Amino acid sequence: MSIELTVGQVANGGWCVARHEGRVVFVRHALPGERVIAEITEETARFLRADAVEILEASPDRVTPPCPFSGPGRCGGCDWQHASPEAQRRLKAAVVEEQLRRLAGVERPVTVEEVPGAADGGLGWRTRVQFAADRDGSIGLRRHRSHEIEHVDHCPIAHPAVEEVGAESLGWRGAETVEVVASSGGDRAVIVTPRPGRRVSLPDVDAAVLIDEGRRGTRALRGRAAMTERVGDRDFRVTASGFWQVHPGAAATLLDAVLDFARPKAGEWALDLYCGVGLFAAGLAEAVGPEGAVLGIESDPQAVQDARWNLRDLPQAVTERGKVEEALDRLEIERADLVVVDPPRAGLGRSVVDRVATLDAPRIVYVSCDPATLSRDVAWFAPYGYRLADLRAFDQYPMTHHVECVALLLKEPA
After folding, report:
1. Which of 7, 102, 187, 357 could crosslink 183 through cysteines, CB 3.0-4.6 Å?
2. Which of the residues 16, 75, 369, 405 is marked catalytic?
3. CATH of region 100-116+242-411, choose from 3.10.100.10, 3.20.10.10, 3.40.50.150, 2.30.30.30
């Protein structure tokens, strides 16, 4: 069914909001203020989802999408290919402002900052791309909210080092997914997840090749599983299947923002929760010096191994494996001068907020990839006397709806 709509404000998740016969319609491929013909893609009792398939009155922010595979019913990886880079950042700022207002009761203007390292107006930045494979071994990218595959011969937002592997033109019979990773240190890897019960036919590629063995982790078939990421004058070892920021400028940008908000001082006791491979822990440890101490907590066993390697020259930094609240209790951590948290998209959640608040740290720096869960957690910190003192937002994921935030929470005097 197709309907004519006038599109209103932007919503979290890459949608714009319209109304039809009393119901909310979440519209993709539209921009605020546009009049469109929208095709309904999903219907519930409370709302509709739709794709804008014809633009009757275009926004001045609309541009021709640079990717030939984007658009209604096609690749679902990008949300804002049809908006100028400047407009994308304004849309993301509006989303962060709305989430803070609605979920945390905080009114504040937000500016989304460009992150250095992307070329050609937001293209060529993604250093990790996961492709889906069909039963014949051809790969592509998932369509939006679908298991269907959009076959592509290139991905315009992929980093040039990812595209140089040429995975899209090769056959991957027996594979379920094929993930291509490139590091700032010049390493490249391909991580293949086999279909259940199938043997993968692996083509020749100029990259390390790893097989995902599920709960047993990944196993290197060719080359090394470890990659090198350089931030400033420090190298970080990162297992290819592990977590690292996918924008080439993101790690340095976030580290600078975290340290600017945290203002760690010599001799302080700092916690880095969800520390990954130790990016923030390293910066904190250098700042607090030998007379200070940093404890990193991380649940992923391979990330913990990498973090311990990366922090081996900083004896004041220690990494513990475990879930955050369990590790804090097991280690009987009762206070901290400073806490940095970088949780997954689901945020901290109530139990971790409650536990972190007991540490009575004067400063909490919260790194978040989801403004909704960040805003929710800011609201949960408020009864403990923490207020949102500052916030920066970064366009680490151009062409998508995703935005990274770094928030500073300060403890108000009792």
Report:
1. 187
2. 369
3. 3.40.50.150
